[in-house]
Specification:
This protein is α/β, with parallel strands linked by helices. The protein has three helices and eight strands, in the order βαββαβαββββ. The chain has one domain: Cytidine Deaminase, domain 2 (3-Layer(aba) Sandwich), CATH 3.40.140.10. Strand 2 and strand 3 form a beta hairpin. The protein is globular. The two termini are about 30 Å apart.
Length: about 150
């Protein structure tokens, strides 16, 4: 896993962040899940989210998510066709903090992908990013940016 000093920072355009938050609210009381497609900067320091791919939560649970195979297949096909990589996965925690659970660690996509957790436990959603490994995690840097890529 990258160290904190060499970990890339994820840039998320405002419309993509808004779509993630809307999906999380719409799927209450269950968890939502999805992928962000994008690219890595030439120097490897930035991950640029370019597309959002909401997935169907086959678990239909407020405490777990499982990507429904057909929605995952469709998302991966769209990413291939757009020549984009998975730069982040996201899911919601309807009634708990945006901190990885043991189940989240077990379902980790991989060490090079940011794991975003949207907490809806209070009136204002809270989003935090994480680098996950099999048995531990550490915070991943991310920021909301405007369409042109500048910070907001």
């Amino acid at each position: 896993m990258p160290t904190s000093t060499d970990s890339p920072r994820l840039l998320i355009p405002r419309p993509i962040l808004a779509a993630m938050l809307a999906q999380a609210a719409e799927e209450l009381p269950n968890e939502c899940c999805g992928l962000l497609g994008g690219s890595r900067s030439a120097d490897g320091r930035l991950l640029h989210a370019r597309t959002i791919h909401p997935l169907v939560n086959a678990a239909g649970s407020p405490n777990a998510y499982e990507s429904e195979p057909r929605s995952m297949f469709d998302a991966m096909r769209e990413l291939r066709q757009s020549d984009l990589d998975v730069v982040a996965i996201y899911h919601s925690h309807p009634s708990s903090p945006p901190v990885p659970s043991r189940r989240d660690l077990a379902q980790s996509w991989g060490e090079g992908v940011v794991n975003l957790i949207i907490s809806l436990q209070s009136a204002q959603p809270e989003v935090r990013g994480w680098w996950l490994a099999a048995t531990d995690y550490r915070e991943a840097g991310w920021e909301c940016v405007d369409e042109a890529g500048g910070s907001l």
